[in-house]
Amino acid sequence: MKRLHLRVTALSPLAIRSDHAPQGVKTTHYVPGMTLSGALAASHRMLRPEQEEEFAALFLQERISFPYLYPASFQHPRFQKYQSPIMPVPKTAQSCKRFSGFPLLEDEEKDEEYHGVRDSLLDWGIFAMLNNEASSIRELLTPLRSHVTCPYINEKTGKGCNHPMDHFSGFYRRNQAGQRKQAEVKTRLQTHTGINREWGTAQEGVLYNREVIDETMQFWGELWLPAELERSFKQFLNEASTEDVIRLGTGRTRGLGAVSIQAEEAPTWEPEPFKRKLTLFNEAVQKRTQEAGIQQRAPFYFAITLHSPAILCDPFLCYLKTITPRALAERTGLPAHQFQCIYQSTGVQRITGWYEVWGTPRTTEYAIEMGSVFLFASSAPLDEELIQALATLEQTGIGKRRNEGFGRVCISDPFHLEADC
Ligand SMILES: [Zn+2]
């Protein structure tokens, strides 16, 4: 498998249909993989209608995984230029309710205040383990106390912030020094006139609003494809960008959705950093379990964080609301009894859409939301077999429709150990 980093620039405003808003006024702040693959398939039809074999290889045989595109615009010039991955903020992230966000860097103007972001996964994990051991209420609440109020202390006045902590969401990028910044999404409302169906002219008295993402916004995503398709895909993408035929999202007949896409080869995947992040995460959990005095400790803990929605079904084809040990066992080839889910922070979203290729609506499906987090215990210690199984899971994803970017996961995301407040 080859991995390409896609850099997408909006040349005109974008409107991406939100499944959460049936009225269609709101736009989502990311581009689903199926929207991207549909847009590229339509461009291919336009540019190379005679090349049916290439069309089938790129869009019909499900060999390419078209990624979700995340917003990648930053005020900070270094973060804007930097090409490291963009990731959705996990559901367990928290920040100050009043001054929410990653802290300012040294070279940033200090006219605004951000009190930093921390993660609550380990707190909740320890809470769940203590609960299993029927601990006293006082013991139970200890791990959760750290995220009741904002611990920020103003350097000049020496005064604490003490505002309540709140849920924090969005997309972020990490630089080589480990500093993090949240991607910005600039949107505005566009007003349109309704069209009279009979006359095809503006309908008197009908005006409506649409939220659109501003032109010049950047997006980022990682595409997976077999090595033998890399050349033809890159050539086609280049041609489509140069000819300015790629249109993403809705309102394409009204001039919305023009984008250019550049693809660069991603750095090669290294086993050592992967192993290190698994070990670091496990050590952090082990330390916390020891501190909390938990008796029954598993030899190995790992987290699964969803970087895109995941569609999972049980053997009876019912949608799963969680990653079950059984689903994990099926993907890793390891026994289900080896895994136990300690804690999870998840949500479910409805997935609708349109087959761009066939021009027909898709059946509605239900997915576990992007950013969902699962903490698992493994009854077997970390050995080569487990490393390999988890590495394959991260590199190939989980669940259905992975060719449309669903089911991307990150194992033991370092985000869960980081805190700047
Ligand atoms: Zn604060």
TrEMBL record:
<dbReference type="InterPro" id="IPR013490">
    <property type="entry name" value="CRISPR-assoc_RAMP_Csx10"/>
</dbReference>
<dbReference type="GO" id="GO:0051607">
    <property type="term" value="P:defense response to virus"/>
</dbReference>
<dbReference type="InterPro" id="IPR005537">
    <property type="entry name" value="RAMP_III_fam"/>
</dbReference>
<feature type="domain" description="CRISPR type III-associated protein">
    <location>
        <begin position="8"/>
        <end position="260"/>
    </location>
</feature>
<keyword id="KW-0051">Antiviral defense</keyword>
<protein>
    <submittedName>
        <fullName>CRISPR-associated protein Csx10</fullName>
    </submittedName>
</protein>
<dbReference type="Pfam" id="PF03787">
    <property type="entry name" value="RAMPs"/>
</dbReference>
